[in-house]
Design goal:
About 45% of the residues lie in helices and about 10% in strands. It has about 900 residues and is α+β, with helices and mostly antiparallel strands. It has six domains: about 150 residues; about 90 residues; about 80 residues, Phosphorylase Kinase, domain 1 (2-Layer Sandwich); about 180 residues, Transferase(Phosphotransferase) domain 1 (Transferase(Phosphotransferase), domain 1, Orthogonal Bundle), CATH 1.10.510; about 120 residues, Phosphorylase Kinase, domain 1, CATH 3.30.200.20; about 160 residues, Transferase(Phosphotransferase), domain 1 (Orthogonal Bundle), CATH 1.10.510.10. Helix 8 packs antiparallel against helix 9, helix 11 packs antiparallel against helix 12 and helix 21 runs antiparallel to helix 23. One of its GO terms (molecular function) is protein serine/threonine kinase activity. It holds the Pfam family Pkinase.
Amino acid sequence: MAIKSDTERPKSAQKAEQRDFASESESPAESLNEAEQNGSFSDFEDELDAAALIAAGRHEEAAARLRRDGDPAGAAAIYERIWDFARAAECAREAGDLARALRNALGANEDEEVDELVAALREQGPGGLAAAVDAFAEQRRFATAGELAEELGELERAERYYRQGHLQLDAARMLRALGRDRDAGRLLERFVEVATPGLEMAQAQLALGELLADHMQFAPAAAHLQEAAATPALRLRAQRRLIVALASMGLRDAARDVLVNARADAPELPADIDAFLRAERAAAQDREAAPSPAVDGSGADANAAGDEDAPGRDPGAQIIAGRYRLGALLGAGTSGRVYRAYDEAGEREVAIKLLSASRDHQAYERFVREAQVTSSLRHPNLVQVFDFSAEHGYLVMEYMAGGALAQRLHAGASDDAEVGRGGTLPASAVRRLGLDLLAGLERAHRRGIIHRDIKPANVFFDARGAAKLGDFGVAHLLDLGQTQTGGLIGTLAYMAPEQITGAPLTIAADLYALGVTLYEALTGRLPLQGPDFVAQHLGETPPPASAVCTESVELAPGWDPLLAALLAKNPSERFDSVDAVRKALEALSIERGAHPLVLGRRRSAADDGAAEQGALSANDLLDAPGLLDAPAGTDDAGAGDGDGDAPRYRFETPLGRTDDAHLSRALDSALDRSVIIERYHEGGPDAAAERRLYALARGGSPYVQRALSYDRDAGVAVFEAPSGEPLADAVAETPLPALAAVRLLMRLARALAPMHERGNAHGAITGTTVVLDEQRYPTLLVCGLGPSSEKAPHPRADVYALLGLTARAAGLDEGDESDAARDALAAAPDPAAIDGDALGARAEYLVRGLLSPPGSDAAGLGDSALKAPPHTGEELYTFATTLQIALLKRAQPGC
């Protein structure tokens, strides 16, 4: 309590206090009588009335006197003695003692005054807020004391006050924030055991389920999350975590069921389970990561990584987490192995990394870091992570069919190559490789992540030839130039000087490693040969790439300065951004004398008769002789330009022709991938066909065949070569299950949506222009469609055709409507022939056919799953999503 000194306080107040402690032999009444007899009553009243009033039990009047005389602190003390806390608070506030005022306001239950005082103390900074915490704690207002302590950042104190206030959920939350998850779990478990059913118990089950799920304890987590989901206020949050838990246990069907129910409350959630899981993983990275559980190897699943060479173990038959069937071994190291595997739940090939049972703590930390970092980065040029279990020691990634860059360089080395020199890639392929890796690096750098280990072994290629950066196990989070710890991390041959010395790292370290990788891909050797890489990286300048290339390779002039800038010893002398490197690469000529597209030889009359005229089917594109089957004397697809340049497209095999073009399959030697080349007849495609080509090329969907290049002057277009078989053949003997058919519809609708949004359409959707790969992913062909019709294709015709195609893929019999009639209507030159009634009838037929078993009563099912007939790709996707939800609901028990 702040009390003024005697020199500061009024004399009347000093005398009042002196009188208050006067001798007991002189009563207040005697003093008053004495003053009256002496004629000094008025002076006595002015100077000693407060003490006399207190002695007479008239405290309220005494306090008022002190307040009037300018002693609000003394008045506050007197008001506190008579429990008049409201006036005590007023006086303490007048005296400037906000903490004392707050204690009294709390005692008086003056809520508005309390709020004002807390706000005033908060403005004073941490000291004022700490005083407020003390005030609430003294008054045993532990809930608010905990809240203010949490606001102040004193989490341990907040946890103590929450527990004293019997707020166990908040106490558990503080324990989690302090990293004491075990204590938080025990507290929540005890609370769930004794709590009565209701909202608070459901909240505890939700918190406990989330904690267990964060520690990969998915089975018990699912049990608590299911209970929490029964409470409407918590349903959606619990369902979202439950879906992830079930999917992590391999129970994808159950996860889909929960997703269906969740979308009833939140239709904006992705309908596809994989899309939902990807979105949830991305969102989880924005939350503070929970500490990983201690791992000692004793609790590992029998199916987790272990000694794969132990007797009786057959990796080819082993199943991980109930869904990943192991196949061939792709690679091995001291900490574990990587297998090719098949995801039986997701019906796709994957790569799975398994930690060894004897893993040490450092290997485990690297494993967890790789999973956490990679799953937070989603980009076409970064290897994607699908699943991860810290407890069982596995990491599931996309399978990279094209292998690693290191394998390509090793495979390209000739037997008589000099020591230290491997194979090389064409300059154009290295340029493309660099651009792909820069795109992935840019995403990582924007998230504050440095890779720290870029090298050919960590660069992979997908089936289409795109390069992707993988293995973020030693990735480093940028922290304002924080110095590295833990010794050398990375691979010395590719390590930047500042990484070797332990200096603060920036993105320049990754650019240096990228320069080493590109140098090696161009020349077949490292820029610095070792063995003392440390001394060389710190002190030696590598020779120009042009000086060490083989005699058969002549680099464009821009390569040497670009690589020199990437390999500068001082980080500040390298490129200052990924974008700057990209621009430098894009400015390079692919190679001297090279052309963007090398035309192949003219087709002969014999070639012209190799196929009937008209649109080519997918069989024509897929069933041609393989590239390796081409005779040794097969002509190349390009003849060069007369000065010794090798053709880009080789091993060309004729596929057939349409009314306006010839098609062939060839190997793109620059990018090492198979392509389809469409050469239009003299004069090129007509204006309408060219507009359609441009429209389809701009589709931007993974389910549309990509157009790689188009040379208008030469009348040549190059497309990616699809894998799989025509849809008509794929479902000829075994139709697709209903759910798979609807997913096919959803994917093709996604392919059509961008076209339709721009006012374009495909116009040739049939069972032969859709290719289905082994994992049931479709590709809508763009090449070989033939000349355009007199009237431009219309979105309604695409929708109509796709609805019918889906019905036939599912094995539905469309009654008396013949194939010819269907195709004629779908390709009708007048789009008005396909109106809303026609679309509605076909859509309702599909709904009834998929939702109803043969011979059963389907009345009313169409209305429940179809609100309006779709007219565009976007509307068709919405329709397909609704149909998928209806199918999943009908699959639930009791439906």
